[in-house]
């Protein structure tokens, strides 16, 4: 290995004492490759095995926790106990080469697809009409009832129990990207007048507490709990960096092992408000104050970009999404001193289709994931 890249391979200790072998994280990209019932396909298992090879921490695709929460075709499921043994195949594949396997637990909220949910509807904090993943037309989502809110919180706990029983090393609570937890925090999506609207952080905190308590009851001290969030949204009024500052202040008081920011560009700057123009990652790292690691992510395609992000001092772990989709050996090639052999451009003519599943290959081919392309 070129010694200049050595900082990328330094171990990272989480607050619960677990040691990660390096700073690389497989990001939880939507692969649309599970069976219709949410069980893994053989191609998905092999895809997760290859993409987890080399990283210290590996995240599954967003895994659905209730029948009302399914947001994608081909989305993994952890809705019921019958999913446990099937998802064990994913956990085993992810752990095969030394990565810690984390299941990302998820509910689509108003972004759930009526075509995919058991009752043909979607629901979230407040009623809204919106267009979601792959939909040709918008759908109407209803307001979720207080009883369903309680059921959803419990579902995140049950999903955690199932992840423990399936052999995962941890769970990541998906509080980002306009899905249900994000929706409750957002003044754009949450217009309720009950306690869930008066305190827009309440739902997120209740989910965290449910997950933490489930781990205490069913897990062990080594079980990892993470939380992913989006720091800003384009809607007005929506989540801004000042709201996120408050959210971070609440999250760092919880017994979490890391926070994971969802960014398209790791160096993106604050859109407006009192922090306008400052890199989001800089603010977040400052607010966390070393109390738990921060995973940064966004448009990292080369070893030098990865090194620069880590040496900036604003990230403790580095998420890789599109880079590992283009080249599953990205990390190993750096470690083996073969960084010049890394594939970081999408080639629609590649015979091996970048070793992607067929549905994910189609997503790339159609430009769903913005990446450098050989045909442009």
What is the topology?
Blueprint: E1 12-13, E2 19-20, E3 24-26, H1 42-52, E4 57-59, E5 63-64, H2 84-95, E6 100-106, E7 123-124, E8 128-130, E9 139-143, H3 146-165, E10 170-175, H4 180-185, H5 195-198, H6 202-218, E11 224-229, H7 241-251, E12 258-261, H8 280-288, E13 294-297, H9 303-311, E14 317-320, H10 322-326, H11 330-335, H12 358-365
Parallel strand pairs: 3-4, 3-14, 4-6, 5-6, 6-10, 7-9, 10-11, 11-12, 12-13, 13-14
Antiparallel strand pairs: 1-2, 8-9
Helix pairs in contact: 1-2, 3-6, 7-8
InterPro entries: Aldolase_TIM, NADH_flavin_oxidoreductase, OxRdtase_FMN_N
GO molecular function, one term: FMN binding
Domain NADH:flavin oxidoreductase/NADH oxidase N-terminal: 8-340
Let me know the largest β-sheet. 8 strands, parallel, barrel
Query: Hey, roughly how much beta strand do the residues contain?
Result: 5-15%
Name of the top-level CATH class? Alpha Beta
Under the CATH scheme, the architecture is Alpha-Beta Barrel
State the share of residues found in helices, binned by percent.
25-40%
Count of DSSP helices? 12
Rounded to an integer in angstroms, the radius of gyration calculated over CA atoms is 19 Å
Order of helices and strands: EEEHEEHEEEEHEHHHEHEHEHEHHH
Average pLDDT taken over every residue? 96
Outline, from the CA principal axes? globular
Structural class: alpha/beta
As for the number of domains, it is 1
InterPro entries: Aldolase_TIM, NADH_flavin_oxidoreductase, OxRdtase_FMN_N
GO molecular function: FMN binding; oxidoreductase activity
Keywords: Flavoprotein, Oxidoreductase
Protein name: NADH-dependent flavin oxidoreductase
């Amino acid at each position: 290995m070129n010694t200049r890249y050595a900082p990328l391979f330094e171990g990272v200790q989480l607050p619960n004492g677990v040691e990660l072998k390096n700073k690389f994280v497989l990001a939880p990209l939507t692969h649309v490759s599970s069976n219709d019932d949410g069980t893994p396909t053989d191609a998905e298992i092999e895809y997760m095995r290859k993409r987890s090879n080399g990283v210290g921490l590996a995240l599954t695709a967003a895994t659905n926790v209730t029948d009302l929460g399914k947001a994608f075709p081909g989305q993994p499921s952890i809705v019921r106990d019958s999913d446990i043994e099937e998802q064990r195949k994913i956990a085993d594949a992810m752990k095969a080469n030394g990565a810690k396997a984390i299941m990302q637990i998820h509910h689509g909220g108003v972004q759930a697809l009526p075509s995919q949910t058991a009752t043909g509807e979607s629901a979230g904090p407040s009623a809204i009409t919106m267009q979601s993943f792959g939909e040709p037309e918008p759908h109407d989502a209803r307001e979720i009832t207080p009883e369903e809110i309680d059921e959803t919180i419990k579902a995140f706990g049950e999903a955690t129990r199932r992840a423990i029983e399936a052999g995962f090393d941890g769970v990541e609570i998906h509080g980002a990207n306009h899905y249900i937890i994000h929706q409750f925090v957002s003044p754009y999506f949450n217009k309720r007048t009950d306690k869930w609207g008066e305190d827009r952080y309440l739902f997120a905190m209740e989910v965290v507490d449910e997950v933490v308590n489930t781990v205490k009851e069913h897990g062990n001290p080594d079980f990892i709990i993470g939380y992913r969030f989006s720091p800003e949204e384009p809607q007005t009024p929506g989540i801004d960096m000042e709201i996120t500052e408050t959210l971070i202040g609440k999250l760092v008081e919880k017994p979490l092992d890391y926070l994971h920011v969802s960014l398209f560009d790791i160096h993106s700057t604050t859109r407006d408000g009192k922090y306008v123009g400052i890199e989001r990652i800089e603010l977040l790292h400052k607010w966390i104050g070393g109390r738990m690691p921060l995973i940064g992510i966004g448009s990292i395609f080369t070893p030098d970009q990865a090194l620069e992000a880590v040496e900036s001092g604003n990230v403790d772990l580095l998420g890789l999404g599109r880079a590992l989709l283009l080249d599953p050996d990205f990390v190993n090639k750096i470690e083996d001193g073969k960084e010049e052999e890394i594939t970081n451009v999408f080639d629609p003519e590649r015979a091996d289709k970048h070793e992607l599943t067929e549905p994910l290959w189609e997503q790339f081919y159609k430009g769903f994931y913005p990446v450098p392309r050989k045909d442009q």
